[in-house]
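Model: You mentioned two targets. I'll fold them one after the other.
Researcher: Yes, keep them separate.
Model: Target one:
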Amino acid sequence: MAEKRANVGLALSGGSAWGIAHVGAIAALLKHEIPIDCIAGTSAGAVVAAPFAFGVPVATIEEAAKKLEWKQISRFAYSRLGVRNNAALAKLIRDLVGDVDIKDAKIPLAIIATDIEHGKEKVLREGNVASAVRASCAIPGYFAPVDIGGTLYVDGGISENLPVSPLRGMGAEFVIGVNLAGMVEHLRPRNLGEVVTRSFDMLFRDRDERTKFAADILIEPDVVSFRPRSFDEAEAIYQEGFRAAEAAVPMIKTKLALHAARASNFWRRIKKFFS
C-alpha cells in the first residue's frame, strides 16, 4: 500500500511590512517541494496568502511586495471610525488576482478578520477577496473598519494572529505556521501607526506565545531588527523568510514521512482486521 501523505496547511501571521518574509518562506517551501493544500492568512499574511491561493507566481508576489510603500495603501479617512483608509490595498489585490471570490481559489483559502460589532473572529471563506484582505488589515484606531455585508470588520490579528484553527477545519492534518509576531526592542514610535501597532503587539504577546504552538511546525523568521512598518528593506526581509523556511525543511520532511508511515500502518491494521 502506498503511503498516504498528510494534507498540509500553511498559516501566515500578521506582521505589517514583515509580511514580505512570508513570500520568501513560500518560495523556500516550493523549492523543496513541500506541498501546500490549503492556506490561511491574517493581516499581512492575508496579503500574501490571497494571491498565492489564486495561482499568482511567487516571483510576481515578490515583485509587487518589494515595490510597496506605506503611502500606497494608506489614505486620509473622512470617517469618525479611523484616521486613515486602506481602500488602496483592495486595488493592489485586484490588480494581482482580479475581482474574484474567495471560494474560487485554486488552493482553499481562509482570510481572518474581526467582527468589531459582535466582538468575534470571522473566518472568511467566501466573498470578494480584495475586500476580505482589506478588512483583515484594518488596524483598529488607525484604519477605518471595513464594511462587508453590513458588518464592520477590523484587523484579524485581534482575533487570531497565526491562523492555525481555520486550517484544521479545512482538513489540514499537518500545519506549518509562519509567525512574524515579534517585538522590536527599544523602538521609539515615529508616528501614530507605530504607536497603535506596537500597543497591540504588547497586548497580545502572551496570547500569541501560547497559540503559536498549535502548529506542527513553526517557522519564525528573525525580522525584529527591521522596523515593522518600513518597506525599505524588503529584499533583506524576504531573504530572512526564505532562510528560516529552508532551515525548517528537513524537520518538515521528517515529520511528514512519520505521519505517512503512521497512516499507512493504521490502514494495514484495518485491512488485516477485516480480511
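Model: Target two:
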Amino acid sequence: MIALPLWAQAGAWGLVAGTALLIGAGIGYFAAVPKRVIAGVMAFGSGVLISALTFELMEKAYEHGGFGATATGFICGAMLYTAANWMLTKQGAKHRKRSDGRHDSPHGEDRSGANSLAMAVGALLDGIPESIVIGLSLLQGGKISVVAVTAIFLSNLPEGLSSAAGMKKRGRSALYVFSIWGTIAFTSGVAALLGYALFEGLSHEVVAATIAVAAGAVLAMLVDTMIPEAFEGAHDFAGLITAAGFLAAFALTKLSH
C-alpha cells in the first residue's frame, strides 16, 4: 500500500474532521433533535477540546518552544479570535451555534441575509484554528494526533447540527445549508494541509508559537460560543457532561502514547 505524503495526510485528516460538520448539518436539518440533546453533545465536545488543548497542544508547544513562545502565542491567539468574533457579532453572528433560529440584530430588524453570511464566516473563524492544529500535529514526529482529530470531530458535530437546525428555522433551503457546510468542511481540509505545508522546516519555536496561537483561539471560541449554548440547553448538567468529555479525551491521550 502506497503511503500518502504528509501534506496529503494532513489535508485528508482535516477533511475527516470537517466532515462532521456535514453529518451534524444533515442530522440538524432532517431530524427533530431536542435542544437539550444538542446542548449535551456540545458540552461533551467542549470537554474533549479542553482536554486536547491541555495535553496535546499546550504541552507539546511548551516542550518544543519553551514557556515564552507558548505563552505569547496563546495570548495572541485568544486576542485575535476575540477581536474577529467581536466584529462578527456586530454583523449578526453571535448566535451562530444556536438551534432555535434566533436572529441577532441589535435593533430587532430582520437581517437574516446578513446574519447568514456572518454566521458562515463565523463558522470558518471557529474551524480554521482547529484544522490548522491537525496539520501542525504532523510536524511533531510525522504522526497525526488521534486525540486532536477526535476532539475536533466531536466539536464539529454539534456545531453543524445546531447551526443547520437554526438555518432551517429561518427558512433556508437544504441546498443553501449544505453548500455552506460543504464549503466549510472542504476549507477545513485545506487549512489542515496548510498547517503542515506552511510550517514544515521552520524552527521549533515558530511551530510551538503557532500551535499555541491555535490553542488560544480555540479556547476563546469555546468560552464565547460553545459553552454558553451548552449551558443554556443542558443547564445544571452541562458541567458534568463537559467533565465526562474531558475525561474521555484524557483517557484517549494516555492510550495513544
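Researcher: Noted. Anything on target two?
Model: Residues 137 and 145 are 6 Å apart (CA to CA).
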